[in-house]
Amino acid sequence: MKVYKLTVFEHDGKKILDESFEASSDSEAKKMGETMLEEKGYAEHTHRCTSPLGKLLLFHV
Questions:
Q1: Of 4, 9, 56, 59, which is most buried, counting CB atoms within 10 Å of its CB?
Q2: In the 8-state DSSP scheme, what is residue 5?
Q3: For the chain, give me the number of helices (H) and strands (E)?
């Protein structure tokens, strides 16, 4: 399992979520990140999800 990072920001740049989670692949992490964003109500906020190697899996401004 690899550790991925999901970060969400307010429009003024303030970080409102900075959460790590484990997934077995980039595609699984992307799905998990999308689900987490929807469940927490942050899908329309600026966010990013990165892999352990720094690959950008999700990004929204």
A1: 4
A2: E
A3: 1, 4
pLDDT tens track for 8-58: 999 999 999 999 999 999 999 999 999 999 999 999 999 999 999 999 999
> Residue type at 10?
E
Amino acid at 22: E
**In this predicted structure, what is the pLDDT of residue 37?**
98
Hey, is 45 helix, strand or coil?
coil
**Whose structure tokens read 């401004």?**
61
Q: Provide CB contacts within 8 A for 31, sequence distance 6+.
A: none
Q: Give the amino acid at 41.
A: G
| Cα–Cα distance for residue pair 7/18, rounded to 1 Å | 4
How far is 43 from 12, CA to CA, in rounded Å?
A: 16
